[in-house]
Amino acid sequence: MKVWIGAAAHLANNALVWAQLYIDGVCHGIHGFIVPIRSKQDHTLLSGVIIGDMGSKVGLHAIDNGFMIFKNVRVPYNNMLDKFSQIDSQGKFNTTISNPDKRFAFALGALTGGRIALTISATDAAISALCIATRFAHVRRQFGLPNQPETAIIEYPLVQHRLFPYFAQMIGIQMAAQDLQTLWNDKENQEKLFDEKNPLLAEIHAVSSILKPYSAWQSQKAIQECRELCGGLGYSAYN
After folding, report:
1. Exposure pattern of 176-200 as b/e (b: 16+ CB <10 Å)?
2. Cβ(9)–Cβ(64) under 8 Å?
């Protein structure tokens, strides 16, 4: 069973499934398979496929996240992704990368671009929230010296301390992600993407794997700080 799959609940007709490949009782590691899940004629679920909606969420409602269960589902021979491994007509397994862990890592290498994009998207959202909160802090006035206009809350060091470090952090993460994206999109690197001797592959994979969750965690904290700083308006559905 797999949960929180994007586009699974209602939209997708096919799924890319990573599964252990067994031939005559011998495991050859994880491989990718294109698995049809819905009929192309009437969009109904195919035999053995169980899918449901994950229900209401706090955001990203346009993504129909779902759960998926397979029960005795048969996959056509040609539906195995076979860039690195193949099964010949006699059922013999062949591969250009003998180490199953390294083979799986190469297969997942293509997902690096998505991790970089998510890092940039997360920090974009945080920077947007920080800009909104900073503008609010310039016009929201509270307290002040006797017989003087109330002070904009941005003037208070505590408010600055709540906002400014997150600005610096998000800009730093963005710069790192953009440099990583430049490396990833480099023509020479793309041509050697699946070359075992390419030293950048492992480095980009490791750094992007760290940046993706870190940027999401920190962006969530920054956005929550901005929401709280804006008081009741921060919790309004309009915002």
Report:
1. bbeebbebbeeeebeeeebeeebee
2. yes
User: Mean pLDDT across the stretch 19-28?
Assistant: 93
The answer to whether 64 and 53 are in contact (CB under 8 A) is yes
Bridge partner residues of 31 (DSSP):
19
Which amino acid type is present at position 180?
L
Taking phi over 0 as left and psi of -120 to 50 as alpha, with beta for the rest, 61 belongs to alpha
Closest alpha carbon to 131 in 229, 59, 216, 237:
229
Average pLDDT over all residues of the chain: 91
Q: Judge if pTM exceeds 0.70.
A: yes
CA–CA dist 235, 239 (Å, integer): 7
Does the pLDDT of residue 110 top 90, yes or no? no
